[in-house]
Design brief:
It is a single chain. The protein is mainly alpha-helical. The protein has a domain of 201 residues. The chain is built from twelve helices and seven strands. The strands form three sheets. The protein has a three-stranded antiparallel beta sheet. Helix 5 packs antiparallel against helix 9 and helix 7 packs parallel to helix 12. The relative contact order is 0.13.
């Protein structure tokens, strides 16, 4: 009798659970949310395109801030409102602490470094590191960057342009360039990754593998909901970038619009407020040097018609499958 009662209760609970799953909460806007599990099903269904999905929700909900319900009441708030972003990154940044789940997952890679600490320890480390990014160091950074561009990048692109296919995977090329520069500037070591022979990149591979392992620790349900409880997503609202925000249209950066005015809290690529990236000015300087070097001698065209990138959710934004382009020399 006890066994029969046990099976009856178990069957009843399962039936009730699946009945709840079959009924979305009345009046619940997109994305669909269910009792107990929230929007976990929608999250899992879109996990391969999570960044675009999160951004699309803003358009479908016609709002700049929305609540994504997670399992067992662990909810996530997303916002593209510059005022909210400013509140988080500047006005009251001291009350928005790093989540313990996130810091624990990344601690093996970054230990108790600047990326994972708060308060007095964060302030002390930032003041110490700031000396490596002052204006006196700029000539050295410019010298190393110019040498890498003239000795490596230009010959590399010239070789590609003269090849049979004239196609190169742009994301991988910049990955090699970035590691060459970072190692030379940070460690005085040149890994020589950006070569026409496309040599193996063991150090870069090891670092990226470590990052993936750390991210995988966080990207499990329901932990991901806890880890991203204070996450905010910016840079893709239609009210700032237009209805074609998801289209690959790089000329938008040359246009003056509501979102493209250089305001830190509309598109905080380098963070903003007290946590602004210390290497921001160096990175922008290097990007300008790269663009000038490349476009002065070469034309860069998408190798695929109607190319549409799918972004990978990681510590830095990357395109899944890379970005194949065709390199043509200017005459």
């Amino acid at each position: 009798m006890d066994v029969q009662l046990y099976y009856y209760l178990a069957f009843s609970l399962v039936a009730i659970f699946f009945n709840l799953l079959s009924i979305s909460r009345k009046g619940q806007p997109y994305p669909k949310s269910f009792p107990l599990i929230g929007s976990s099903l929608e999250f899992i269904r879109n996990r391969h395109r999570i960044i675009l999905w999160i951004s699309e929700n803003f358009d479908k909900l016609s709002t700049s801030t929305y609540l994504l319900e997670g399992p067992l009441g662990l909810n996530v708030i997303f916002t593209t409102n510059p005022s909210n972003v400013k509140h988080i990154l500047k006005t009251r940044f001291n009350i928005y602490r790093k989540e313990s789940t996130l810091t624990s997952a990344l601690s093996d890679l970054f230990r108790k470094g600047l990326f994972l600490v708060d308060g007095a320890e964060w302030n002390s480390q930032r003041q110490f590191i700031r000396h490596d990014f002052n204006l006196k160091m700029f000539p050295a950074y410019i010298f190393v960057t110019e040498k890498e561009l003239s000795r490596r990048l230009s010959p590399f692109l010239s070789t590609v342009a003269k090849g049979k296919t004239t196609i190169v995977e742009l994301q991988d090329m910049f990955r090699r360039l970035t590691f060459d520069l970072a190692c030379q500037l940070g460690f005085g070591f040149d890994p020589e990754y950006l070569l026409p022979s496309l040599p193996a990149t063991p150090f870069a591979d090891a670092y990226e593998t470590a990052v993936k392992i750390c991210i995988r620790r966080v990207n499990t349900l329901p932990l991901i909901w806890k880890a991203t409880k204070k996450l905010f997503n910016t840079g893709q609202p239609s009210d700032a970038w237009g209805s074609d925000w998801a289209d690959f249209r790089p000329e938008r950066w040359l246009e003056k619009s509501a979102g493209n005015t250089g305001r830190n809290f509309t598109y905080p690529v380098f963070q903003a407020g007290p946590r602004t990236c210390l290497g921001k000015d160096i990175a922008i300087m290097q990007m300008k040097m790269v663009v000038t070097t490349v476009l002065k001698r070469f034309r860069v065209l998408p190798a695929e018609d109607n190319f549409s990138p799918n972004y990978d959710a990681s510590m830095t934004s990357k395109m899944k499958g890379g970005f194949p382009v065709r390199i043509l020399e200017r005459h």
